[in-house]
Amino acid sequence: MPDPRSTTLLKTIGGGAAIIGVASVVSKVLGLYRERLLASHFGAAEILDAYYAAFKVPDFFFNVFILGALSSAFIPIFVELWQRDRIASWKFANAVMTTLTTSLIVVGLVIFVFPDFAIELIAPGFDGEGMRLTIQFTRIMSIAMVLFGVSNILAGILNSFHRYVAYSLAPIVYNLGIIVGILWFVQVWGVSGLAWGVVVGAALHLLVQLPSVFALGYRFRPQFGIHTAGFSKMLKLMVPRTFGLAAAQLNLWVVTRVASQLEEGSVSVFNLANNLQYFPISVFGVSLAIASYPVFAEHFTKNNATEFIRQFSQSFRNVLFWVIPISMGMLLLRAQIVRLFLGTGRFDWNDTILTANSLGIFSISLFAQSVLPLMVRSFYARQDTKTPVVISIISVIINVVLSYLLAPTYGVLGLAAAFSIASIINMLWLLAALRVHLGYLDDNRIVWSTAKIVLASVAMAVCVQITKGVIGPQVNMQTGMGVLLQTLSAVAAGAISYGIFAVLFRVPEVDMLKRKLLARWRT
């Protein structure tokens, strides 16, 4: 069989990130449509609060058992084994699949039978009906947890081979499943159809990746035993990351717990604003980090520190080049964004204002949240899971403390502020730690490039604000069409002006973007 890891365009960070990024845009557009349907059908009220809260228990165990292994250890070890012994690499994959999936099935059964205690911890502020709905949703979603476990292990295999197409399609079909649940299953089975839509989406997430994994030569055979090559090493590497993910999930538990005791709809508002701001994070931050991870791991395996640093610096600056102007635009257009994507049906004006203000607070830390996935994976690629986990746990503690301090006074806006402050601290600490580990981080280039990006973004923000002021009085802002025209005009002015100012200020990433576009055009 030909080596599926042979060099292709997909093996480059740029090629992989482009595929993931484009698919991520499609997925996130569907995700925004999903959020719009949820807001329109249910508003920021009891049912939607219960729906978002129900994700927390299965998400906790999924993160502990699956992401703890895949995000920190699976890919580097699989790549290392493949380069030495391909049969051993497949045995390792089967050992991971067998052990972790079995663990999730057991946990899923426990959640299905005994969900009450955990839900009372997460959402003590819910009344009887809200609690009943959350328990019902949680039981159904425990099935999706198992399906996601299998699917994400398959995704780890695909990423190891730099095969991103099927992996990138998975979130798209997942969102389609949820949308079907909202539009159809709810009509047939009542509100429980929301949770069954999640299950169908998870099943599609798994099925769409199977053909590509089989094409690589993978065949599942039960493989138990800690003595499987690479398995014990993975366990050692994943333990710190598992603690970090557990802490992050407990942090979400605390946020949900606090929000459940605020005014009705606070859980929904926090999640809706968070999901809106996650769009650029996913498209630019996560996609580039996912594509970078296996490449970073190869550089570390080959002991090529110079190339490792160069690739990190380039990827870091690329993320900031896109995200900093987007964050400023999101801050200035927060009300328009929420009105366009969520302001319909049962989602009233008070819900819109509260969600828009939460989105504005989230946007302040968007740059930090976007580079965090890349920075964390740079540690994992070097098989250092302890450092980012320790920093993450401390950041979670900061977030929890600030949430309890700010929420009583500022409500859900205090939760968003606590999240943003903790994210910025996490990013700065990780950056400092990475520099200590590597001794050099291409500092001058990163600082100089970032300064130019910020200047171009500030100039762009002025143009956006002027455009808002000019267009607003010319259209009927009480209608969706008026809001859309103002928003599109401001976005167009922002995009054009940012491009002009980036060229005028000689932002290095502009030249890099030109070279990539020319290379793609010629090929």
Helix coverage percent: over 70%
How many domain units?
2
Q: Roughly how many Å apart are the termini? A: 27 Å
Poorly predicted runs are 1-11
Strand fraction equals under 5%
Q: What is the string of SSEs from the N terminus onward?
A: HHHHHHHHHHHHHHHHHHHH
Tally of alpha and pi helices: 20
Calculate the mean pLDDT score and round it.
86
- Main β-sheet, in a few words? none
Extended strand count: 0
The structure class reads mainly alpha
Using the alpha-carbon principal axes, give the shape. Answer: globular
- Rg value: 23 Å
Task: Describe what you observe in this structure.
With 523 residues, the chain is mainly α. It has two domains: 13-441, no CATH class; 442-523, no CATH class. It is 84% helix and 0% strand. It has 20 helices and no strands. It has helices spanning 13-42, 46-54, 56-84, 86-113, 116-122, 128-160, 165-189, 192-207, 210-215, 231-260, 266-301, 305-332, 334-341, 349-364, 366-381, 386-410, 412-438, 443-471, 480-504, 508-522. Helix 15 packs parallel to helix 17.
